[in-house]
Amino acid sequence: MQYRKETGLTSRIIIVGAGIAGLSLAQWLTRFGIEFEIIEQSPSERRSPHGIVLPFNAVRELKTLGLFEQLQEEYFDFWKLTYCGIGGKEIKSAILTQAPFENEQFIAVREQQLLTALRTGLEKKIRYNTRLTDVDHEEDGVRISCTNELLNGEYDLIVAADGTRSQTRLKNFEGQTAVQDHHISCWRVLLNYPEHGLQPMHMIGPVSQFVIYPVSNDTLYCYAHVHEAPDGEHVADGAMLEEKGRLSPDPKENLRRIFARYGGPVPEILSRLGDAAIIPDRLQSVAEPCFFDRRIAFIGDAAHGCSPLIQQGAAMALADSRCLADALAMQQTDQALATYRDRREAQTQRIARASDAPLDSVLTGPGGMKQLFYSLKLRLFGPDNVRAWRRIATERPFQSANKSPGS
Predict the structure, then answer these.
(1) Domain boundary residue among 243, 263, 283?
(2) What mean pLDDT is reported for the chain?
(3) Residues 185, 308 share a domain
(4) Range of 320's domain?
(5) CA distance 54 to 319
């Protein structure tokens, strides 16, 4: 199929960002025969130093895209989640082999492995070390400037796939609040731990969490966070941090201090940090979800970035990409953008609310009462992420109008 300007279908597209969202869109556009450019501000292939959890719907999307086999079984299949208090005592477990998940797959994987799979066949297409510097809306397109002068000019469509802190979004909505900060400091680390023998575990205190997912039999992906008190100080579960609760510049020191009272496997994990690369960050969400503005489309975290508490970031990015590419393959640009928004808006808003809702009330009430209430809720209703996954599993998924390459 030829996609020429005179047909009325999109003929010139530029994707900003070569992460999960941008690469998956590039894969779909390639399959539909739609030309595009893709730029990435990193100087070379992005080397991700942490892991990622892919629930059943993310795995479904990768299989539909025909790239799941590219992971080469370098992942950890899991079928059970355990939730514990900070001492390691189990509060609740969730079995993921029961309805509605009996035919589904849940995995944890190095994010680098996922990005490598998504880059398959695109290696020569990505323009690295290229940063968007300016965007101007035209009557039937967008004029861009970037650090690669060969790419400057007018495009039918820009697709912002550059994350929650999207620079494309900042330039387009200049002066508006782009992100909401949840006052949570977090850390991610991939840890070498031979023969760990662990299964996924969420350890939860009144103001902190320590989450463990194996990505192989000898490597763990750990995610940890702590909430700030209203005065900006950080409070460890059981004690105020030294130096008036301020964090240290050393992420290892922060983890060891904040999670010193945790039991279970955490003390051994903390003792093994050694030279592991710990990625510090803050939890932020997109302030107002947006799918497109004139001829700029937003996908993945750039459209609706939210907290990772129900682990839906990759799944939503993959679904956004498939939906947008399908619409562009069948419709004129403006109609395709409206179709993309209409198909994706309701579900992504529900998921974003489910992801961020637990963060809003975490610092209200005494810590002991919060822990008691949360434990009771967990025992009665199950974990937030698994309840969200169940709802997603019973929703009717978006069906492509085009034949899927993985079908």
Answers:
(1) 283
(2) 88
(3) no
(4) 5-45+119-178+287-360
(5) 13
Residues 19 and 127 placed together within one structural domain of the fold: yes
Residue 23's φ and ψ, nearest 5 degrees, are: -70, -40
CB 305 within 8 A of CB 163: yes
Q: Point out which residues pair with 279 in neighbouring strands.
A: 188
Q: State the amino acid at position 54 in one-letter form.
A: L
Rank 64-68, 363-367, 389-393 by mean pLDDT and report only the highest. Answer: 64-68
Pairing of strands 201-204, 296-298: unpaired
Q: Which domain CATH number covers 203? A: 3.30.9.30
Q: How many domains does the chain have?
A: 2
State the average pLDDT over residues 100-110.
95
- Residue 395 and residue 391: Cα distance in Å, rounded? 6
Give, for 134, the enclosing helix (H) or strand (E).
strand 132-138
CB 153 within 8 A of CB 143: yes
Least confident of 96-100, 175-179, 397-401: 397-401
- What's the pLDDT at 6? 42
Contacts of 18 (CB under 8 A, 6+ apart): 26, 38, 39, 40, 42, 46, 119, 126, 128, 161
How many other C-beta atoms can be found within 10 angstroms of the C-beta atom of residue 13? 24
Beta carbons within 10 angstroms of residue 99's beta carbon: 9
* 302 within 8 A of 164, measured Cβ to Cβ: yes
Q: What is the mean pLDDT of residues 199-216?
A: 94
Cβ pair 220, 213 in contact under 8 A: yes
Answer yes or no: do 218 and 298 share one domain: no
**Residue 196 near residue 335 (C-beta atoms within 8 A):** no
270 and 202 both lie in a single domain: yes
53 Cβ contact list (under 8 Å, min separation 6) = 106, 107, 108, 200, 213, 221, 311
pLDDT one-digit tens code per residue, 385-398:
999 999 999 887 66
Lowest mean pLDDT among 4-18, 177-191, 334-348: 4-18
Task: Say whether both 21 and 134 belong to one domain.
Answer: yes
